[in-house]
Each structure stands twice: as C-alpha cells, then as structure tokens.
Design a protein that fits this description.
globular
Length: 185
C-alpha cells in the first residue's frame, strides 16, 4: 500500500513530484541512465518522501509487545507479562513529535530533524529486535518503482486522498478505486 499512497501523494503535490523528478533525473544521468544500487542510495529526497508517506499511511496500524519486566509509567506499575498494543497511526500523527501532523512534508526527515526526534516516534516497519527484516528491500523497491515512474511520467490526480475511504484490516488499504493520470514526460 505504501507505493499506492506514494503515487497518490506525489500526484497531489506537484512541487514535491517535480523535485523528486529533478533528483531522479540527475542521479540517473550520473549512472548511465539506470537506477543502480548506488543510484538508489543517492535518492535522499525521494527517500524522505517515501518515509513521510509511510508516516501518514503506515501499512500496519498496530503492533504488540509483551513486557519482559515491570515498567513504571509515572506512578502506575505495568507488570511483566502484560501485552501492549502500540498504535502506530496515532504515534505517527502525535503533534508532540510531528508539528502539523496531517500535512505531507518530506523535510520532516532531514537528518538534522531526525537526530533530535525520539527514535521510536517513527516505526512503519515496527521497532527493536522484532522489526521487519524486509525494510531495506522494501525501500529499494519503492525507490526503484517510484523513481522510474516519475522519470517517465507526470502524475496527475484524478481522485484525491481527502475523498479516500480507508479500510482497516490486518493492514490499511484503500476501500475504493483511486485513479491517477500518467502523462508521458
């Protein structure tokens, strides 16, 4: 679903899409017109866009963890063995970590802003020792597909995310067709 949401967000934010296209074109030019592994590592703005997409629309909304030791939360004792439910969507939209949390802003992921943010304020692939083993592959795949799309097409919205009805299941998904026009560059 991250790819779908990224396409929709880029279509709706032409300025961001244009900046991604400029970055992709420059990187591809330096790499013989290809999105090689090295080229993908140099797509920092595209990566920020994808991270912001997954902040706004995490694929998994909830993760669980079982406490292995007692934890004090203020004056309340949470005993070992309790199963905790972590609401990723609420965490990703918490204004304590994300000013204007509903706004699509890839620059939230500038290195100087990331280093000052709590390490668990952003967990689209879960966190800790049980995080997603495929997260690096997923990011490479997203960069490859989205980079190729914006290199070859201008994305124009037909349907808008504000009109989207999301369905919450094991993952978040879109409950109706969402259309984007692909205009060759």
């Amino acid at each position: 679903m991250a790819m779908t949401f990224a396409i929709l967000l880029l279509a709706e934010h032409k300025d961001v899409q244009d900046r991604v296209r400029t970055e992709v074109n420059a990187v591809m030019e330096k790499n013989g017109g290809k999105l090689t592994m090295t080229a993908l590592q140099n797509l920092s703005y595209l990566e920020r866009c994808l991270k912001e997409t997954m902040r706004l629309y995490p694929s998994v909304l909830l993760i669980t963890r079982t406490l292995v030791e007692d934890v004090m939360l203020k004056s309340y004792l949470v005993p070992a063995g309790v199963e905790l439910y972590i609401d990723i969507l609420s965490l990703h939209k918490n204004p304590e970590f994300w000013p204007n949390p509903e706004v699509f802003d890839p620059d939230r992921f500038l290195p100087e802003l990331v280093q000052n943010r709590h390490p668990f304020a952003y967990i689209p692939f879960s966190a800790g020792s049980r995080n997603c083993i495929g997260q690096r592959f997923a990011m490479m795949e997203l960069k490859t597909v989205i980079g190729t799309l914006v290199h070859n097409f201008c994305l124009e919205p037909i349907d808008y995310l504000k009109d989207c009805r999301c369905v919450v299941d094991l993952i978040i998904r879109i409950g109706q067709p969402m259309r984007v026009k692909f205009v060759p560059v």
